[in-house]
Amino acid sequence: MSSDTTVFHSQIPGVELTGRGKVRDLYDLGDSLLFVATDRLSAFDVVFPTPISGKGRVLTQMTLFWLEQLSGIVDNHLITADIEEILRAIQSAGATDLQSSRQMLEGRSMLVQKTRPFPVECVVRGYIAGSLWKEYQDAGGHATIHGHVLPAGLRESDRLPEPVFTPATKAESGHDENISSVEAAQIVGEDVICRLEELSLQIYDRASKIASERGMILADTKFEFGAINSEIILIDEALTPDSSRFWDAGTYEPGRPQEAFDKQYVRDWVLKQGWNRQPPAPALPQEVVEGTTRRYQEAYRRLSGRDIE
Questions:
Q1: What is the value of pTM for the model shown?
Q2: 256-275 pLDDT per residue, tens
Q3: According to the CATH classification, is domain 19-114 in 3.30.200.20?
Q4: Taking the CA atoms of the chain, what radius of gyration do you get in angstroms?
């Protein structure tokens, strides 16, 4: 399959679409789910009208890389990403055109177990950036934010004394909202949120060490978890440029924004255009699309040591 195949909205003839998130399309195949990572891009929780060609392939292959690396910390929902097995599964579910489905699904889809997702996002921050930096500034640069006491005098992009867990509510549309662990416990229960925090910090610790060995900084990231019976497992994507901030360790300098290998490039561009962060999002010019593609692919290459298949 050509690596420049673009998928904005997936379609599997004969199989009904179950759900459509900001980036992923979901198909219920009976005893399993099919996740399809499209080339849609969202920023500030708004989906842009311009696709980033090949982006879904990067997200899927990056997730598969990290799921391998996280073995021993937490189980995950992956059944297979093998295209032949996926085609057999959708054929059993009624797919009528396997050739077009292969072209669309290869490299960007995962067959996964059904779980009961927890309705919180598990965010870990090792550096002060993004919404945490904004909240810190708004609080006068010395504050307790989401239950964490941050030291005075931090600069943008400074490393925090230790990684902090700042969960967020999950929004199908509109903006996610950062909350404290106490507030998250009111949603999922105290025992569950304690376990989610423990797992999230363990994953961040391993991933940040792996990134550091490859000349990258994992500034922050977010995870989603679900349950099968009473077992908590990692679900959805993991440690991708959509869900994480990756910086170049060689050019890292606190006190300013960093050279990023994620969608911060798009965020910066649209804000310079005066966009108010409300729908509809503006169309992206070709140079921004190409710049985003390069950054996503470079993040995968640096971290995994591989090129996109």
A1: 0.94
A2: 999 999 998 999 999 999 99
A3: yes
A4: 19
* Pairs from 128-136 (Cβ < 8 Å, separation ≥ 24): 128/154, 128/155, 128/156, 128/157, 128/158, 128/160, 129/156, 129/157, 129/219, 129/220, 129/245, 129/257, 129/258, 130/220, 130/245, 131/178, 132/166, 132/178, 132/220, 133/157, 135/178
Rounded to 5 degrees, φ, ψ at 105 are -90, -25
Spans of all domains in the chain? 19-114, 117-263
36's tokens? 């399809």
Q: Write the pLDDT tens digit of every residue in 63-94.
A: 999 999 999 999 999 999 999 999 999 999 99
**Joined tokens for residue 60:** 């899927």
Question: Which CATH number is correct for 117-263, 3.40.1700.10, 3.20.180.20, 3.30.470.20, 3.30.710.10?
Answer: 3.30.470.20
